[in-house]
Amino acid sequence: MLEKVMNQTKKTWWSEGIRFQCQGSGKCCVSRGSYGYVYVTLDDRKRLAKFFQLPVQTFTKKYCDRDSNGFWKLNEFRAECQFLRGKSCDVYEARPTQCKTWPFWPENMSAKAWSKEVAKFCPGVGKGKVWTEREISQVLKVQEKSESSY
Ligand code: SF4
């Protein structure tokens, strides 16, 4: 997907960078429409298991389940992520890759998706640090790699 986005136009719409800084709203940790999944790679589960000082299998059994395609994710949100406390993430230092890379996900990076899905929803868009095209590409690669290993 990312390759497709990058190949379609030599110059990305974000070539001048994108201003984004998390405002700690917790909005991305709450169910919204069909969004309510946090997928986790084996590395994510290992990191989180270590955080809880649990064997990976025990962590996975307690805090994860599989989607209909068999991919591991955190237990489905009951309105919000099981690790959200108020507006804070209880596992912030060990949080899943998907949480770290928001909002620079391949599926968000068309100009249309960004303006309709991300900028309208996320209060961090337009605030704080300007992420350069290079930095965004790096994050996109991390997220793409993660998506290929659920
Ligand atoms: S793991 Fe933390 S950052 Fe990720 S959705 Fe849950 S509360 Fe939010």
Q: What would you say this structure looks like, in words?
A:
This protein has 150 residues and is α+β, with helices and mostly antiparallel strands. Helices cover 36% and strands 13% of the residues. The protein has one domain. It has helices at 2-8, 42-52, 56-63, 97-101, 111-118, 133-147; strands at residues 18-20, 64-66, 72-74, 84-85, 88-89, 125-131. The strands form three sheets. A two-stranded antiparallel ribbon has the order 1-6. A two-stranded antiparallel ribbon has the order 2-3. Helix 2 (42-52) packs across helix 3. The protein is globular and about 45 Å long. The model has no long low-confidence stretch (mean pLDDT 92). Iron/sulfur cluster binds next to loops. Residues 29, 38, 81, 83-84, 89, 91, 95-96, 99 line the site of iron/sulfur cluster.
Sequence-ordered SSE layout with sheet pairings:
Layout (H helix, E strand, L loop, with lengths): L1 H7 L9 E3 L21 H11 L3 H8 E3 L5 E3 L9 E2 L2 E2 L7 H5 L9 H8 L6 E7 L1 H15 L3
Antiparallel strand pairs: 1-6, 2-3, 4-5
Helix pairs in contact: 2-3
Bound molecules: iron/sulfur cluster.
Q: TL;DR?
A:
By secondary structure, this protein is an alpha+beta fold.
Strand content: 5-15%
Bound molecules: iron/sulfur cluster
| Largest pleated sheet | 2 strands, antiparallel
Number of domains in the coordinates?
Answer: 1
Give the helices and strands as they follow along the chain: HEHHEEEEHHEH
Strand order of the largest sheet: 1-6
Count all strands and give the number. Answer: 6
Return the average pLDDT rounded to an integer: 92
Alpha-beta classification = alpha+beta
Low-confidence stretches: none
